[in-house]
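Dear support,

Our group has been running a series of protein-ligand predictions, and this particular one with cytidine-5'-monophosphate is the one our PI (initials K.S.) wants archived with full inputs and outputs. We had some confusion internally about which version of the output was final, so please treat the block below as the authoritative record. The input we submitted was:
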Amino acid sequence: EALAVITIDGPSGVGKSTISRKVARVLGFTYLDTGAMYRAVGLFLQWNRVDLSDDQAMRSILAKIHIQLLPGKNEDDDTGVLLNGEDVSGTIRTPEMAMVASKVSAIPLVREKLTMLQRQLGNIGGVVAEGRDTGTVVFPRARYKFFLDARPEERARRRVRQLCMRGEAVDERKILEMTLERDKNDRERAIAPLRQAEDAWVIDTTSRDIDEVTHLVLEVIRAGR
Ligand code: C5P
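Confirmed final output from the archive:
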C-alpha cells in the first residue's frame, strides 16, 4: 500500500524547496528537507577533520551526530538545523557547504545513517520529502513522486538571485560552475544517484514560476492520479 508521503526530487536550483514548502502548507503536511541533513553532516565532519576514507573513524563520528530540523517560521525561510544542540542554520546555507554536502553524500555510511533518520521521520506519513533520492531510495512506496528539472543556466540564475537576496556578493559564472559540478557528483555517484523514479511526474520548471509548478503538483494530488 502507498505511503502518505509526497517526494520532490531534482537537481539544485529547480525550486524544489520553495515548492515543497508550499505544497506541504496547503496540504497540512510536514516538510522534510533532506538536503539540510547532508549539509549538517558535512559541517560536522569538517569541524572534526575526519578522514573520510577511514571507515572506523567515520562510524564513530557518525554515531555522535544528532540532527534536529527546525521548520522555518515564514514560508520563505529555509529549514534550520540544530547540530548537537548548536544552531547551524545559517552556516550550512553557503555554496561552499553545498559542495561539502555533495562530497560527503557519496559516502555509503553517511547515506545509510541519513536514510534511516529520514524514514523514521517520514514513515508516519503526512510528509513532503525533498531531496535527490527521496522517491527512488528513501520512500520508494510514496503515494506521489515528482521530479523537477530546469536548464542549468536558469538554475544557476536562480541560485544567484537567492544568494543576492541574502546580501551575499556572488560571481554568476562561478555559481554556474559549482551548480554543474554538484549535479555531476550527485548524478554519477554509485549509491542513490540523482535520477527520476520511473513512477515520478516530471516537471520542467525552466519557464514556469513557483506558483505554476506548485499548482501543477497540487493538481496531480487533488486529482488522485
Ligand atoms: O538540496 P541541497 O542543496 O540542500 O542538498 C545539498 C547536497 O546534499 C546535494 O547536492 C546532494 O549532494 C546532497 N543530498 C543528497 N540526497 C538528498 C538530499 C541532498 O545526496 N536526498
